[in-house]
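STRUCTURE:
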């Protein structure tokens, strides 16, 4: 049976040592034009805020969004572009995430331990969920995420749109450079 094409961004699975994941609050200023959705990778900015990571942002990724508050502190389902607010994020260092492989390439079990980048598309404003995916066309050449396995779920097979277990191998927490 074919895997469903249902991207949901990066979903935290827990820490590499088997523990739960921790969230931190990050500020977003109104200068960022891109909306941020649950499951979007986040980039640290020099002014101390975060923004949605663009495809192949590499070492700039620091966290993955899991919740939002508007400037009044009320919970919202996503943060619209050019809007100030707060993002609850899971720092990517030592964390495992599930993410769907994108369309066009059947991913095989031989992709275990290979690396790839993420692909960004606009999220769903009705659900607040990201549509980021793993870029299956650059498995073995992209370096942002390492594929560890497929998610162990019924109806998830090694093929196109497989849900994968990944870790961010390039991230702001591992890079010693200041932002």
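SEQUENCE:
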């Amino acid at each position: 049976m074919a895997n469903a094409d249902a991207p949901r961004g990066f979903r935290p699975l827990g820490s590499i040592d088997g523990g739960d994941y921790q969230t931190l609050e990050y500020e977003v200023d109104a200068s960022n034009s891109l909306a941020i959705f649950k499951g979007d990778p986040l980039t640290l900015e020099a002014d101390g805020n975060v923004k949605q990571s663009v495809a192949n942002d590499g070492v700039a990724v620091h966290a993955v969004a899991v919740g939002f508050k508007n400037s009044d502190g009320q919970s919202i389902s996503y943060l619209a572009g050019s809007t100030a607010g707060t993002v609850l994020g899971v720092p990517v260092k030592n964390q495992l995430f599930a993410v769907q492989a994108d369309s066009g390439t059947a991913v095989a079990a031989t992709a275990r331990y290979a690396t790839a980048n993420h692909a960004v598309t606009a999220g769903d404003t009705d659900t607040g969920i990201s549509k980021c995916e793993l870029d299956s066309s650059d498995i073995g050449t992209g370096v942002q995420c390492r594929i560890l396995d497929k998610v162990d779920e019924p109806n998830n097979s090694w093929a196109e749109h497989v849900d994968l277990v990944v870790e961010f191998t390039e991230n702001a927490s591992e890079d010693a450079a200041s932002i």
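REMARK: The longest strand covers residues 61-70.
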